[in-house]
Structures are given as structure tokens and as C-alpha cells.
Design a protein that fits this description.
Largest sheet: none
Distance between the termini: 38 Å
Number of helices: 8
Number of domains: 1
Oligomer: single chain
Amino acid sequence: MDLFMPLFIAAVVVLGLIKKVPIFEAFVIGAKDGIKTLYKIAPTLVGLIVAVDMLKSSGATDVLCGAVTPLADALGFPKEIVPMLLLRPISGGGSTALLTNIYKDCGPDSFAGQAASVLAGSTETTFYAVAVYFGSVKITKTRHTLISALAADFTAAVMAVLTVRLILQ
């Protein structure tokens, strides 16, 4: 497994030599395009990161979790996954940290641990994805994308809890 990347790179170089592609020039062009893309999406990403940090620092996430917990209880969600449910569309790293905390507090084999695992694998960092993909092509009006994506995340969360509940019974 340790040799996979070196072998992959060697295969790309050999294939490029066989097809007579100027390998280094193609690499440089790709690197330039990557930097151009980064330049286009950096302001959006910085704004998203600042917004997430402000939400955490202000305590707004705690207030929001408190407001959503009764609905989550009514839907049968374990209360431990509510913060992850709210943070997942915004921050992949933050939701992974919450997932780790759920594992530590409840155990990975608990209902909350398994539901959180399925939730992590079946939902998207929606705001990040919209910011990156739409920002890279300079689309500012997302129309129905955000609402549809958040509805899909909610559906995935409900199905994650239902699936784990069915499997554990």
C-alpha cells in the first residue's frame, strides 16, 4: 500500500512518455490552473470560515441546538447527534470533531455513534460545496440549490437514524 502513490505517478509518467505528452509542461499548466481556481474561490472560503468561527464563538450554535433539540427528540434523533446534524452542512472538519466526541462519550457501537457515522457518510458539507463549486465559476445566485441540498441533508439524516434503528432492532 505504501508503494501505491509512487507506482501511480510512475505509471502516469510512463503513459505520458508513450503518448508523447510534454509531461512537465502539462504539469505546470495544471498547477497554474489550480492556482487560478484557488484565487477565484479563496474569498468565498475565507468568508465561510469566518462565519463558522463567529457562530461558534458567539454561542449561536448552542442556542440553535437548544431550539432544535425538541424537534429532534420528536423525530427520534439521539440528542448527542443534534450538534453534528447542524454543523455538518457548514463544516466537515467541525462535524468530524463532533463525531469523534460522540465516539468518546457514547461509544462507536452505541445508537448515537452508529447514527452519527451513517450521518457523516450520507450528508454533505452543503455550504462549503456550494461556496466552492459556485464560487469557482462565479455564480452568485444559487436559486434553489441551497434549499434542495439542505432538504437532501435533512432526508439523509432522517434515513440515517431510521436505518440504524432498523438494523439495531
